[in-house]
Amino acid sequence: MYVQSSFLAKIASPQVWKENEQDISQAVIVLFSCLSIDPFTASGFWREVLSNTRDSLESEPQLQAEIENQLETELTTKDNLRQILRLLGKKDKYLVLLVDDYDAALRENPEMKISF
Fold first, then answer.
1. C-alpha span between 54 and 65 (Å, rounded)
2. What's the CA gap between 101 and 34, in Å, rounded?
């Protein structure tokens, strides 16, 4: 587990939402660090987003099941997330995605060598 920045943790805090007169009831807040994806890959990023979204939806077993179906695919992409976002929208929910240490995506991944 990596420590998220205090700024992102503050954004995710229900108290901050309340202080700013924002309704958090429909928000699905996902907060994670890209450092938890090792080695970092695009598919690993989308898989982490989906996994954390699933974990944030304890009161929505149907949505959790649909995310599980998406996670069973061999390669997870932004298209998997788009499907989940549509389902969230149908339930009048929205995703607040807070990503820390995104510079990890820019580091060289020795497992992904591209030759021209």
1. 8
2. 5
Q: Residue 13's CB: how many other CB atoms inside 10 A?
A: 14
- CA dist., res. 89 & res. 15, Å (int): 24
Distance of alpha carbon 13 from its chain centroid, rounded?
16
* Phi, psi for residue 97 in degrees, rounded to 5: -100, 115
Half-sphere exposure of 27 (CA within 13 A, CB side): 15
Phi, psi of 27 (to 5 degrees): -85, 140
Confidence band of 116 (pLDDT split at 50, 70, 90):
very low
Mention every residue, 6+ apart, whose C-beta is less than 8 A from residue 113. Answer: none
pTM score, whole prediction: 0.84
Give 44-96 as a DSSP string.
HHHHHHHHHHHHT-TT-HHHHHHHHHHHTSSS--HHHHHHHHHHHHHTT-EEE
